[in-house]
Amino acid sequence: MNYSPIALFVYKRPEHTRRTLESLIQCPEFVDSPLYVFCDGAKKEEDKEKVMQAREVVYSLVGTKAEIIESTTNRGLANSIISGVTSLCDKYQRVIVVEDDLVVAPQFLGFLNVALEKYKNESSLMHVTGYMYPIADFKDGTDALFLPFISSWGWGTWKRAWNYFDPQATGWELLKKDKNMRHRFNLDSNYNFFEMLKMQMSGDIDSWAIRWYWSIFQNNGYTVFPPISYVKNIGFDSTATHGNWTSRKYLNQLDYPHNITNIDFPNNIKTSSEEYKIIQKFLLKLNPRWLSFTKKILSPVIKKQ
């Protein structure tokens, strides 16, 4: 198998970057995977030292392996990801995306690579993720799941799907008028992703992910999820761009033993109504925290860096 390229996006958290890279290195596929590290530039003078420290970590760990792209200006995470994903999809037809606040399990790259290869011609599948919510009902599962929304914590896609990415979110206003469409966009009214999209379009936030979800929704696309998470977010601390977040206990993953080494990838692309209802129930419990949760799970950058 020709392994998918990895796009790692780094800013100003050197220790997080170290942990992210060290976890990727533990994946057996890493040694044969093309690696591109996109280092954003400092937004403020006081950020420059941390930005340089993060880059030093990159050079010390993967300087001989990676192609390291260092920006002299602050592009912001959304612009960096959109540009980086586009360039690698153009070159390789697919990409795996990791940010500098994620720790991945050794099975992470294997799961994404198998899914990206197996479903490369399945037009209804547009996104693959290594993250799964900490839901006990799934911890003994062995089949990948197909769900009609995304996660931005450790993910991949194909050029054929990314071609549909619409940064302008054309037609999003239809959600204001069409209650049935808004109901579906909000996962049968169990989660208010519409509010996130409104914030994006009014300029209150800067999220590539909510626009990507809208693009997938517009094209009736699906995401491949694992039954247990291969990703843990370590960014819920004082170094986070938007500060601490009290709902981490709902999302801190890798809580279940990773005794599932072989995930089955069904040929029949169909969302299980039972599994979908379980996830909707989980998300509904988060509704009192919907805004902060949505910001973290779907938009790593709420303000421009």
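(ticket continues) Second input and output from the same batch:
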Amino acid sequence: MKIRDIDLGEKPVFLAPMEDVTDPAFRLMCKRFGADLVYTEFVSSDALVRSVGKTMQKLAICDEERPVAIQIYGKDPGAMADAARIVEEARPDILDLNFGCPVKRVAGKGAGAGLLQDVPRMLEITRAVVDAVKLPVTVKTRLGWDDSHKIIVTLAEQLQDCGIEALTIHGRTRAQMYTGEADWTLIGEVKRNPRMRIPVIGNGDVTTPERVAECFARYGVDAVMVGRASFGRPWIFKEMKHYLTTGELLPPLSFDWQMDVLREQVRQSVARLDERRGILHIRRHLAATPLFKGLPNFRELRIAMLRADTVDELFALFDRIRTTYGSEA
């Protein structure tokens, strides 16, 4: 699969853009374990235009994570075009437009998935950004606003006509948020549309190596994007790539090995931010990691781990977890 001249290989697996998750350290770790393309957290176009410091920091990328995409969102065509030019100076490989974020503070203000209720404006934004930069421009969106307005088959052609070079579809409506099951049938319909010439990337509920292989086989997508299943489990890309290559599950990774990866995530998070903010940032991964699922009598340790305020305190708990559960996990 290629996006313009960027060769992403056969059956590539991508790390989805996720707010407060896909920071540089996490992207690099997922890349190390096999992610073929990684995305930044989404970036506000209005904040970029105003040069808000915290937002500008989100443009920081490094050569080790390439190919990498920077994703922006907003509702004003002029501001989105201006933000795109700012992003281009950061030299990502791809510029992605977020037309899929369902959260109220974004969609409720007419950006992200909110633009599924104003397709003319979405297309105006897309054309403005494509015209503003030389980078390949891609889009990530959803099936539609709700079950009564699943417009993705028509919308995909319209976006392609605006000049985008790949389209990612999350198999839910905005009304679903992240609930219910992702519906891949319409993603497959978009891919089978003979008028579609650009790569189609599927996203939603891709949580296992078997599922990623099924998505390629059943729906014919060009790539699969993994989101929440990577929380506290960056090695999921290693598992998926092994299965896609061999048709066999990767032998189970040891409990100690996985604990070491989580420990490294903590170190990198603290190094990038500081001790307090780094630990706050990593709690989402520690709360979601499947590593601790099903461990007997783990509740008190889990609570203590998610309340730890220092690296020393957290790592002491890690040592206790390893001693208690390492041999039986």
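Agent notes: The two ends are 38 Å apart (CA to CA). The chain is about 45% helix and 15% strand. Closing as not reproducible unless the customer responds.
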